[in-house]
Design a protein that fits this description.
The mean pLDDT is 90. The strands form six sheets. A four-stranded antiparallel sheet has the order 1-6-4-5, with no helix packed on it. It is of the alpha+beta class. Helix 2 packs antiparallel against helix 4. The protein is built from six helices and 14 strands. Helix content is 36%, strand content 31%. It has two domains: 108 residues, no CATH class; 129 residues, no CATH class. The radius of gyration is 31 Å and the shape is elongated.
Length: 242
């Protein structure tokens, strides 16, 4: 299998025009070396030091190794869609996960700490998503949607205290949403507001407890369990069991 490593770049002047000359350490010219590649193989262009794949093609002429350290190497054909996580390791194009790294240029190593931090971030985002998820609340037989946002929970507590101080039994024009996402303003009793506040507090407590439980358990998982960990699935199970 043919391999070309860029060792030097030169500006070549040829009568009326200039072009970039690309050479390996033996002064072989890239443009002349292209004909030595097999037409049926996959040509992989990657960086010699990082092993990051820069481009792939069956047609070697479309590759442009214009930096010292660029490598063009041919391998048995494989499907390879270039993305930021493709690397050339042990003669193959491989896609590294965020928690994997390359050691000594040839071994893919699992980064346990990075994977745990990645899962913690997913669990945090799921908790926040659950915290603000709307829930149904029924008034006089009509079901409305109430956003479970901390600002609404804070407002409810403040309004209940205000109503009690003023000896009012209702609060006018609390904003709900319908299932069609239109706004609806409804009068609430103090009992309605206290019931909503309790629902919000329960959801907040359960969502935080689920995140905390799962986060603390991560250190006890094996590497294989961490690799396969489905944060959304685990979070939903923990939340239901709280």
């Amino acid at each position: 299998m043919k391999k070309f490593i860029v060792d030097k770049i030169k500006i070549i002047e040829d009568k009326d025009f200039k072009y970039i000359g690309i050479y390996d350490e033996k002064d072989n010219d890239w443009y002349k070396e292209q004909k030595k590649f097999d037409s049926e193989t996959l040509k992989v262009m990657y960086n010699k030091d990082s092993l990051l794949v820069l481009s792939t093609s069956k047609d070697v002429s479309v590759l442009a190794p214009t930096m010292v350290g660029d490598v063009v190497e041919e391998i048995e054909y494989q499907e390879a869609q270039v993305n930021p996580n493709l690397y050339f390791v042990n003669g193959k194009v491989v896609e590294l996960q965020n928690y994997e790294t390359i050691k000594n240029g040839e071994k893919i190593v699992f980064n346990r700490d990075k994977r745990i931090e990645e899962i913690k971030k997913e669990l945090y985002d799921l908790r926040v998503e659950r915290d603000i998820a709307p829930f149904e609340f029924e008034i006089d037989g009509v079901a409305y949607l109430q956003n479970n946002r901390s600002i609404d929970q804070s407002n409810l507590t403040r309004i209940v205290v205000m109503c009690q101080a003023l000896k009012k039994t209702t609060f006018e024009n609390w904003k709900f949403y319908t299932k069609e996402n239109s706004e609806k303003y409804v009068n609430l009793t103090i009992q309605d507001m206290m019931k909503m506040a309790n629902i919000m507090q329960e959801q907040t407590t359960r969502s935080m407890a689920a995140e905390t439980l799962l986060t603390h358990n991560l250190e006890n998982l094996t590497d294989e369990e961490l690799k396969k960990y489905n944060a959304k699935e685990e979070y939903e199970k923990a939340y239901k069991n709280m």
